[in-house]
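Shape matters. As here.
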Amino acid sequence: MAWISETDLGTKPAPDSARTVSLRIDGDTVTVPEGTSIMRAAALRGTNIPKLCATDRLDAFGSCRLCLVEIEGRAGYPASCTTPVTEGMVVRTESAKLAKLRRGVMELYISDHPLDCLTCSANGDCELQDQAGAVGLRDVRYGYDGANHLQAAKDESNPYFDFDPAKCIVCSRCVRACDEVQGTFALTIDGSGFGSKVVASADEGFLPSECVSCGACVQACPTSALIEKTVTDIGTPDRAIVTTCAYCGVGCTFRAEMRGEQLVRMVPWKEGKANRGHSCVKGRFAWGYANHRDRILNPMIRESVDQPWRAVSWDEAIAHTASEFRRIQAKYGTRSVGGITSSRCTNEETFLVQKLIRQGFGNNNVDTCARVCHSPTGYGLSTTFGTSAGTQDFDSVEHSDVIMVIGANPTDGHPVFASRMKQRLRQGARLIVVDPRRIDLVHSPHVDAAHHLPLKPGTNVAVLTAMAHVVVTEGLADEAFIRERCDWDEYSDWAAFVAQPERSPEATAALTGVPAADLRAAARLFATGGNGAIYYGLGVTEHSQGSSTVMAIANLAMATGNIGREGVGVNPLRGQNNVQGSCDMGSFPHEYSGYRHVSDPATRTLFETAWGVSLDPEPGLRIPNMLDAATDGTFKALFIQGEDILQSDPNTHHVAAGLAAMECVVVQDLFLNETANYAHIFLPGSTFLEKDGTFTNAERRIQLVRKVMDPLNGYADWEIVQLVAQALGLDWQYTHPSEIMDEIAALTPTFAKVSYLALEEHGSLQWPATDAAPLGTPTMHVDGFVRGKGKFVVADYVPTDERTGPRFPLLLTTGRILSQYNVGAQTRRTENVAWHAEDRLEIHPHDAENRGLRDGDWVSLRSRAGETTLRALITDRVAPGVVYTTFHHPDTQANVITTDYSDWATNCPEYKVTAVEVSPSNGPSEWQRAYADQAARARRIETEAAE
């Protein structure tokens, strides 16, 4: 499956139909689903009808007239791409007349195209070239003069691809891909006849236009009019391997197309069940960080963070790592050390890190970055439903009638899924957006939210309770569903609570900032509009009431009967590629893989038997507790795989103090990240292109990551962890990640039927994959909740302790932007900086005017925790009293502003609510200057290389 070519069947599959149709094509009987096009039916038979405007990624268009066929009993020569099959139809795809017609059509295309095939970058990878050969075109009667293209210069503005209008045949495939697949509507056809041309947003050029560089247009282009710069520089690829993207939680699969040992391009795989052949700018193009000059390829050590790094051999680095952890444990005790797993690494690597800590260090001091993003999802959904994961697959959105997006910005954070959501919205589904900021989904081409509820940051629970008030008091609850599937007594208690007058939309409007009429209308729509699906993100979880909000969402879904079938559900949009997997693998200090508590004797015995050691029954320290203990002098060493807690975790001052207090900090990563400023050992990591393994995306889909090239550092990340374990005296003898997955499956009930063999055979599996569901479970809780009866939980609104006042009158909230990823360590080392070279502070015109600020001014952003400076972006996307910024650039370090307040149940930080003040600034803050100086000193590397 890995080494694979793709066949384009010309048109999309027919809509799901139980009926089939039999017809004859070139003398053979073919049976296909009703509604299939002649072109697709022929392709399924093995006959490829010539085509240019047609592709199975787009709706049939019928403009090129190259795919003409003859149909017995029917006059003329219909286009096979737009003609559906009928019972008994007799079709001929080849005849002398058809050949003549096709050659004539192709001559017209070629007459308006330069015949420079031998020097063209797409030579050998060009559909126009292929189809000219397919129709037997040998001579062209009409000369090409290029006059129509002289006024249209080559557009090289986009950092990843070029557009050459001279090569364009105006087939409209790029325009249709932008419209139908991506939903940006950035391209159009200008002019008519031979003078027509493709233009981007009123002929602005690709970079300054509305184009989001998803690559759909490049993939659709049948010529070299749109072509990747890497193809021009390296040449056309000669082989491909299917792998999984290592950016967001959508989990797109790609064909990594190679020429020799060089990666030429990443092309979204149309068989990918998460992305269905689509991509975004990050997955499609932003992979150059793998070869960036900043990447560290040799292990390094130092005695003190004030010293420069010294490159050493792998043997010395591993031995020193093991020696330091053993020394510290001998001096300070077994629980004086711990580790952090990564949501960017594979399931297998994450499993090994938590195993290293539990089996090798003898404690449960392991945590993961999911602590600071989606730990409330685990708590809230396991409490109400019995399992800590989303309920649907991504295909489910195609069956939704009402979609509620709360605390998420899918077009920036999960763009490929957002495109699928927009497709459904253009088909007529209704949208409710609950967000303090006017995200793109509120209004974009052919998509308008039915309701935007711009709540004040921190009032999620109050808004959801007011919506539940409407559902209950207006008789909109699905009583039959509740009585059958949920605990009726618990529902009755909850219903009585939300029905109280003080929780009505009118009573809470002043608190939430949401007009009562708007909230009532949104609640009625969700309860009565058909299949209702809820998608949420970090704007829900990263609050002091994150777990309460997740449970309030679950309550609303159960009350309206929107659980257990396609088109409905509660769906967390995971931020990083393997957040779901890192949680599944036992990365929390209180849980083994599969979310089983460390205090459970039966579970612990299972792992003790497998690992041959006695395991600690006491939960370990969470990340914030590790830092607290470090400053208290009781926690002394930390192994960090693939995380940058100094930039990503809240209250940067506190994180820095905790790291500085430790005697040994080990960082395993690609670059000297911000956390490495305080590290004593650096173990260079490997990219997703350099290893085998699996990721689990936001829909619980487990997919293979396949090695495309050898690791530049010498080892895959799992191999490095195994070397450390062996140096500690553990008898680990894995030879391939598939063996680690076999161990995971043997110890984890929800992964019981997961194996590399099954993943190769089926492409992917969605856990739980058990004896009862060996192919996985796309939709959860179909016949009943995992916990038995659905549990309604009273989630009362409790104001955050973080309050505005005279000194800090504004509320800061944070989020992501499309072109950058998390702390930016990867994307900042690609051409994506062309779109987002710095973090900006969004501020409403009213607030800016009151402070004498103009767009682009440098401003000071201060909170009770710290101060930083950045440039202002004046916009009405945010409401008065609210400011917003991203956190992708360490120069800004937005988390120096955020506080230690966190979710009451999980310690997930309250990133989304920080009281701040904004004022004009003349330059960097004192902290920024000190930080830049410390970082420069901490990153010095001795010039001599390791022997």
